[in-house]
Amino acid sequence: MITVPKGTKDTLPKDSYKWQYIENTARKTAALFDAKEIRTPTFEHTEVFVRGVGETTDVVNKEMYTFLDKGGRSITLKPEGTAGTIRAFVESGLYASALPVKLYYITDCFRYERPQAGRLRQFRQFGVEFLGSDSCGIDAEVILLAKSFLDGLGVKNLKLHINSIGCKDCRKKYQQALRDFLAEKKDKLCDKCKERYDTNPLRILDCKDEDCKKLLKGAPVILDYICDDCKAHFDGVKELLRAAGVEFTVDTGIVRGLDYYTKTVFEFVSDNIGAQGTVCGGGRYDGLVSEFGGGDIPGVGFAVGIERLLLLLENDGVEIPEPERLTVYVAPIGEAGREKAFKIVSELRKSGIAADTDYMERGIKAQFKYADKINAKFVGVLGDSEAERGVIKLKDMSSGEEKDVPISAILNELKKL
């Protein structure tokens, strides 16, 4: 038997409605903020992610699915949604349209990492990218969109953590201060953080190793190194969140895992999702569009993994509404009834009534058992005698009530029920 590859998972019909519910909620929430959907290819030229995500990140160094195509070109399955969206924004000339441009996507992503609960090698993300404004108001709006989406799903006990990592100039000063602080402790850092010390010391703040966390006690705080403009921007974000009634915690440990972030970074975290408590994360990235040749156009966005959301909703005890039941199952008896049933089902579907019939040549008892298994609301029995009289015997599967209904009136009868 051929099995599914490690780190991937089939979504079967018994669960697919949960995904549809989350994705529909995402689309409705995005529409409230006037965000429009963008769909980018599943794979891109590798340069898109090296340039966009950053050469020093774990994603680029260790987690990307990269291969040479038959033309010898380096191709990568998308590990996240932002870089491809920015590439499309620049390539299509969207930057020349009315700004800000508000985009959202629901897409599959791929990262080679150790599979665990809520984290797979192929996973699905909902993300937004708002491009063209450097206002602190657009930062607050993106955070509100994320909160509205999560609230709409019924996620409980979420906490919003925010931080500012400043502009590139701020970060250079802070990175040097952090290196100076860790210089005598460098040998005690984990292997990953020893690499990060030289390439991107901010990522040490995000390390999950307990020994590294202890070594960071008393480390300089990035908010002490941000310039006046970055401070004013961050103060503006906080003020707008307070005005909207959104509670938050300033968390100077948030740096996010990708190199493109500037100024505002944020995470929604939960205690109900295991050790890795981040449900949704994002922030501002003012230099990313220019990396793709699109000029000095600022941006801000977030992404949330749908697998992790499903795990969180399950742990929170949130019931996702089940899909609409099949309205009627037409159970034919005999050849004449079978032909008539097919015609009735076809006509009902044309009128928007969910209907089905038997294609397994089951007996009437077996058909009732099948109708019960698929949770049909009604069963319409159509034997030779019913066909001759021009009626269908309609049974309510909840109450057990039965009545003869003229075949010509079945549509109106079902619409009333």
What structural keywords apply?
417 residues; alpha+beta; BirA Bifunctional Protein, domain 2; Rossmann fold; 2 domains; 39% helix
Question: Overview of this structure, please?
Answer:
The chain folds into two domains: 13-167 and 226-316, Bira Bifunctional Protein, Domain 2 (BirA Bifunctional Protein, domain 2), CATH 3.30.930.10; 328-416, Rossmann fold. The protein has 15 helices and 16 strands. It has helices at 13-32, 46-53, 58-63, 82-91, 136-153, 168-182, 191-199, 210-215, 228-243, 288-291, 306-316, 334-350, 364-373, 384-389, 410-416; strands spanning 36-37, 43-45, 66-68, 74-77, 101-110, 122-131, 159-164, 249-250, 262-269, 278-284, 299-305, 328-332, 355-357, 378-382, 391-396, 402-406. α2 crosses α4 (82-91). The longest helix has 20 residues, at 13-32. It is elongated.
What is the topology?
Layout: H1 13-32, E1 36-37, E2 43-45, H2 46-53, H3 58-63, E3 66-68, E4 74-77, H4 82-91, E5 101-110, E6 122-131, H5 136-153, E7 159-164, H6 168-182, H7 191-199, H8 210-215, H9 228-243, E8 249-250, E9 262-269, E10 278-284, H10 288-291, E11 299-305, H11 306-316, E12 328-332, H12 334-350, E13 355-357, H13 364-373, E14 378-382, H14 384-389, E15 391-396, E16 402-406, H15 410-416
Helix pairs in contact: 1-5, 2-4, 5-9
